[in-house]
Amino acid sequence: MLEKRRSFIRQASYLATLSMLMPAIHVLALEKGKKKILLRNCWQTINIGDIAHVFGIMELFIKYIPDVEIVLWPVLIDNGVEELIKKTYPELKIVNGRFDLGKGKPDTIELQKAFDECHLMIYGSGWYYEKSTDLRSWWKTTKKPFGVYGDTVQELSPELQDLFNHASFFYFRDTESLKYVKSLNLKCPVQEFGPDSTFGINLHNDKKAEEYLESVGLEKGKFICVIPRLRYTPNWKMKGYVPSEEEKWKYEVSLKYKEADAIKLRAIITSWVEETGLKVLACPEVAFQVELAKETIVDPLSDEIKKNVVWRDSFWLTDEAASVYARSRAVVSLEIHSTIIAVAERVPAIHIKHPTDTRKGQMWRDIGLADWYFEIDETPASQIINKVLEIHHNYPQALAKLDKTRAYLQQVQKNTMSTIENVLMNS
Fold first, then answer.
1. Amino acid 33: pLDDT
2. Architecture of the CATH domain 31-200
3. pLDDT per position as a tens digit, 14-37
4. Would you list the DSSP string of 218-275?
């Protein structure tokens, strides 16, 4: 009886000691294993910029915090994008599902497992968090760290302001967004400039690009790419749903300015062809711009100029587009992500901004490319033409300018990844 009592006391003492040591054992286990990030990204697949976000931030993770395991939680991953991601990152885990607000938990086992196992949630570049409850659901159910990487903010509702009081970091891809959020006096400890993740991209399909360029008679370094845009993107037309009253109004605004905007792009193309004798590729960043380029840029040109202009007659994915941009002389775009991809490829890029677009165009000034940035309503076509020709005639200087910008971007990217690593190690 006495021996049984002694055995019980020893066992109870052991269990009490083990209980006290469990937190330390748990931390040690996490340190030995890989920390995990749940990456919410890939907003849509009809836009090579939205696709590019994923590949850009993945390259930054691999370069700066390679021991971290990434779990991608995409919004949309169709149209060949899933296959492209798996081919590029075969070890990347992709989880699907949604957070069921009614049940207060993810609606798939794989997403629930990601919520349980991941130590940090990051919203990649884009805008989606403004309409989504995903970050809020993550924080409410896990109380684990979260942050936003390389985003633009137009306005934060009181509810979102409260949410971001709990964020570990908020990186803004333009300083106008940063200034606005700083004025709100949020408690988030890290509120800084952090480039759009697309600047980190290293994605190519050289074979497909070279085959395409050869088929349409374009030679490396002897053409520019020109990308059109409407004042507002008609998502309803591409996705096939009935537009809301606000979307109808936005489309009317787009139609009102469509020709005036196109006139400036055609003037740039005409001057380029006449002054250099080189060619132009009219191509899309967003799917609907395939037809827009034909209608507003190519068809109205004179027959003589058309001889040097190629119309890209189909949409493409980011890998092919990046390889084509890399072989161009310069990129001139009303969409910003084509210009970002060009900079990543060390190709001069001019961004022409619509007044209806978000604050994100400010990033061109923030990264040292202010003289390659033009507000379309405030700038005559002649001024943009002069800049395009200046780049062409002084190409070494343009590349030196790009190198300075790229060096700055890489330093900021390194700093942002260091912060994310610190958050992870303390989670």
1. 73
2. 3-Layer(aba) Sandwich (3.40)
3. 334 434 443 333 333 334 578 999
4. --TTSEEEEE---SS--HHHHHT-PPPHHHHHHHHHHHHHHHHHHHHHHHHHHHHHHH
